[in-house]
Specification:
CATH class of the largest domain in chain B: Alpha Beta
Shape of chain B: elongated
Structural class of chain A: mainly alpha
Number of strands of chain A: 0
CATH topology of the largest domain in chain B: Rossmann fold
Radius of gyration of chain B: 25 Å
CATH architecture of the largest domain in chain B: 3-Layer(aba) Sandwich
Largest interface: A-B, 11 and 14 residues
Oligomer: heterodimer
Largest sheet of chain A: none
Structural class of chain B: alpha/beta
Chain lengths: 151, 516
Amino acid sequence: MRELISRIYESLFYNSGYKLIFDSLYDEGGIMNGYNTMLLIFLITPIVVFSYFYFIYKKPLATFMTWMYWLIGNFILVFGITYFVIRQRLFSTTNNELLNAYTDVTTGYASYANQFLIYVSLYNALLSLIVAFLFSIIAKHFSKQFIHLPF
Amino acid sequence: MARKLYIFGIGGTGSRVIKAFTFLLASGVKLSKEFDTVIPIIIDPDISNGDLNRTKTILKLYQEIQNEIHKPYKFFSQKLKTINELTDNSSDVNPEYYHFKLEGVEDNTFGEYIGFNSLSSNFKDEKDDKSFIKLLYSDKNLQSKLDVGFKGHPNMGTVVLNQFTTSENFNNFANTFADGDVIFIINSIFGGTGAAGYPLLLKNLRSNNKDIPRIDKIRIAPIGAFTMLPYFALDNKDEIDAESFEQKTVSAIDYYNRTILKQNQIDIQYFIGNKGNTNFEEYSVGGVGQKNRAHFFELVGALSIFNFTKHITDVIENNEDNEYQRSNTKVREFGINEFNENGIIFQNLDTESRELFAFHLTKLKLFSEYLDKRLYKALGKARWTKGKGKFMQLIKAQKNKYSPLDKEYFNSPEYKNQVKNFLNFFEEWLSEMESNNPAFAPFNEIKDDNAFDIIVGNELSDKKGFEIVDTINNELIEEQDIRNTNDLKHSTLIKLFDKSLDRALKENNILTKKQN
């Protein structure tokens, strides 16, 4: 399972020149390693956000654009959560070799890690859009207020 | 036992009280459970009378709307029928059937009606009938055209209205009268039609005239009456002299006392008036021009009908053979707890009156305000207004998902000509009462975002608007009970708002019993 989840990210981002970063994400934290954490972020956040939208939010004249704004809000939220959680993971690593690599500017690890954080957060946010959309298609049928959204 | 309530509204006051009564029924105020049908009957010779025609239109609209609601809750729940519908068992909604017309009044003067010119003037043989008639009626009376009523002359009304009880209309009324049915009469004491018509009608109802079908049932039936004492003056003086209103009242009251009240001919007599009032109406000798502003006292007249049906068992006593007998006449007047110069509000009323109608009237007012101020925002956006789009009509989709209350419905002639039209009359009625004296002004001007501040003296500490109604509408639109329309056009709209406004007011503790 862990292998499967890591492929979601490594198939796009793996760079053997910065192997330590990817090993850290895979190995550290046990079942809640970096990759599993990112998966949970892009799965749970849109479910929570859109559960609130469909079952608690009470703006009866909400339109398709309202739903879109919530989708964008979800995107920003997932981006932000992913960025800060994974940033914490990477730069507070227990892997001394990785810590030393960050310190040594010539390795380029610190610069790569910062760039990687932005791209992987964007990627996670995009994945969350798919989840949000699929969840919306199901949840709307149980919603009293927004059975007509997104369509 | 299912009872029928026959309401005879005599003259302009009769029409206006029936109008007020109709609005209260539309708002959901109900008669006691045993009354399943109300039959309003307007007696007025003035067929072009503005008040009469307005009331007939409102009654027609009420019926048309009610006929398009499947099992109504509170709004429009009381059945209204005409005598013709009972007699012919038809569902034909014709406003003319509410109006009992008189024969021979349209093109005749009073003199022509009584055949004055054909009377003898032979004083030698003591057959000088003409001179005798001239003792009772002036030349002006004799030349007076009858098509606009009796112009405040009950002595003329008494003669002309006498034909009523031998008319086909009255026969039809009598033929439909059943055990347990009750009668209520509305009149003014200072006019011509009402002042004459009430004692005449009552005399016939309590008679032993075997020519009247089912007279044995009718003569012992409970009968209530609401009599309006003078409550307005006129801004001019000609054929009708408003200064004579109080004088006429004194004479008429004396007559009523002797012949009606002391004889226990009526079971409960309601009175209301406003002595020394300076409330002026535009002068009009009947016809289209007689379209008085609605008055709070007419609303009180409508309340008296509910009071009468509520206390129906008070007027009936069972004797040993278990046949009911009438008790002594009770006389009731209306009072308020305090007078407010800015206009009477709900808080000024006694508890019983307030509990009877304040909540319901507020609901209907909010319904009207919503359609006026909020619908255009919600239409096409709120879930409860989302109908099937053209694309979805091509494919099979969940039936419950789509609301029948879409743009097509709100643009339909049925909605505009029936529901919106009825509510326009309702708003006009409220507005007229507010501008009258004493004013009845229980409602604030509201906007979309503070709709629930609608009741004067009962404004909420935090602003709550029509958004609440849309939220509740969205929740309720799926309910089978509301969706089950039986193909009746207005069923979903009326029942949806009936329930949602009920809930909105209760959840915000507006006019709930706690507040009373």
